[in-house]
Amino acid sequence: MSQTVDRALSILPLLAEGPADLGQVADRLGVHKSTALRLLRTLHEHGFVYRQSDQRYRLGARLFALAQQAVENLDVREIAHPHLVALNEKCGHTVHLAVHEENEVLYIDKVESRYPVRMYSRIGKPVAITVAAVAKLLLADLPEPERRALAEKLDYPRYTSRSTHDATAFLAELATVREQGWATDLGGHEESINCVAAPVRGADGRLVAAMSVSAPNVVVSAEELLGLLPLVRRTADAISREYSGTAVPPSVTDPAEEARTP
């Protein structure tokens, strides 16, 4: 029975490449046409494949409906939370998870640091969108026309001397973030607070959330916090894999960078 299930499931990625006839399916599976036909008929009865007028088979609408339902039922916060806690236990610093909704970037989870100094951020609170590391990641993932339109209508408060000061500078920074795949806020919102962030991606490669580690200068220097970047990126990759159900390629591939990770 397990071999039958395996063969039936092997048909789906074949048809994802495009419609195929009975002979092509049988050849790919390495079985007789009668066996392939029985498998296709069963999948057809459940709506997973559809037989076209030219006698070729393609993926059925039921499969797409199930996929959409699965995506809608995913809760990135629920999936991410154990990973955020584990990261906090390793580094001791404040860990955030944020999402982009209706032109705002909001914190949806937070694990407090182990030391007495506390950040004012809280779950449900919008971030400082022009300086926050998580915001830079989420906005950098937008298509270029959307990034430009959004950047041009934002205000650019001067929180500190390191704050992004206008749309041109912001777009340039987003381009850098998009290319490198991670972001920082080194005193851009508060002089004494630094932050590094990494992306959480869905099965289609687009960002569904961004996570970060933040710490004050009195606890750890900006350089020391940047040293945690490989660990932060590995945590984000682990969340991405669990959320998407796919083998997301690891972000950290540089052996020298790995060696610096605590």
From TrEMBL:
Residues 2-61 form the HTH iclR-type domain. The keyword Transcription regulation applies. Residues 243-262 are annotated as: Disordered. GO terms for molecular function: DNA binding; DNA-binding transcription factor activity. It comes from the Bacteria. Keywords: Activator, DNA-binding, Glycerol metabolism, Transcription, Transcription regulation. GO terms for biological process: glycerol metabolic process; negative regulation of DNA-templated transcription. PROSITE patterns: HTH_ICLR (PS51077), ICLR_ED (PS51078). SMART domains: HTH_ICLR (SM00346). Residues 62-245 form the IclR-ED domain. May be an activator protein for the gylABX operon. This is Glycerol operon regulatory protein.
